[in-house]
Amino acid sequence: MKIKNGLSSSMEDYLREIYILTQKKDDVRVTDIAQFLGLSKPSVNRAMNTLKEQGYIEHEHYGTIQLTKAGLEAGKNVYDTYKVVYKFLTEILEINPADAEEEAHLLEHDISKGTRKKLKKFMKKKK
């Protein structure tokens, strides 16, 4: 559980999933996140309280969850990193999609913005 920018890997995962869910629907609730991640509602509630305390989300008890500006940026960054790494693993290294998905989820937490930018640039050259 590496801590980067004050966020553990699991907190980054929550922000990524909230970001993805907000792209699909207007109202995101604890139940949606629990179902999406296959976790219990109490576990998700604890994580939401932590993210709220850290200023990444706004959430009233039993209400919808909304990303703050910082939460939106963090969630989008983790998701963008995942996508770039996944694409690199599948298209360049030809790793099968299931394995690449698992690896990309692990790597998304440890790659710097600078490395992500270079990977993106590399992938554009390969097209």
What fraction of the residues are assigned to beta strands by DSSP? 5-15%
The run of helices and strands is: EEHHHEEHHH
Gap between N and C termini: 35 Å
Task: Sketch the major β-sheet.
Answer: 2 strands, antiparallel
Task: Indicate the structural class.
Answer: mainly alpha
- How is the largest sheet built, in terms of strand order? 1-2
List unreliable stretches of 5+ residues: none
Shape: elongated
Q: Would you report the number of β strands?
A: 4
Brief write-up:
The protein is mainly alpha-helical and 127 residues long. It has 6 helices and 4 strands, in the order ββαααββααα.
Q: Please, could you describe this protein's structure?
A:
The protein is mainly alpha-helical. The protein has six helices and four strands, in the order E-E-H-H-H-E-E-H-H-H. It has helices spanning 9-24, 30-37, 41-53, 69-92, 97-107, 113-125, and strands at 3-4, 7-8, 57-59, 65-67. The strands form two sheets. It has a two-stranded antiparallel ribbon. Strands 3-4 form a two-stranded antiparallel ribbon. Helix 1 packs across helix 2 and helix 1 (9-24) crosses helix 4 (69-92).
What is the topological layout?
Elements: E1 3-4, E2 7-8, H1 9-24, H2 30-37, H3 41-53, E3 57-59, E4 65-67, H4 69-92, H5 97-107, H6 113-125
Antiparallel strand pairs: 1-2, 3-4
Helix pairs in contact: 1-2, 1-4, 2-3, 4-5, 4-6
Give the tags.
6 helices; mainly alpha; elongated; 67% helix; single chain; two-stranded antiparallel ribbon; 127 residues
